[in-house]
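We treat protein structure as text, and this decision shapes the records that our systems exchange. The tokens are whole numbers drawn from a learned vocabulary of local backbone shapes. Below, we set out a record of this kind in full and without editing:
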Amino acid sequence: MKRFEIDCNYNYFGPSKLGLSHEEVIKLSLIPNERVLVFQDEDEWLGTVVFYKELPYVYQWYVKLD
């Protein structure tokens, strides 16, 4: 399972859906439905990588927290 830092302020769809940039997705080789462990500061959460093609480009990738 991949583990990476995420910015919790980038959550345009609510606090349980944390945005990812296309650059992050490429750098980390993320794929839709992949289970990941994300963290910010001392907090960690499990989630699933989501790609939603119908959204505008900057919002298409996010991590949906459990």
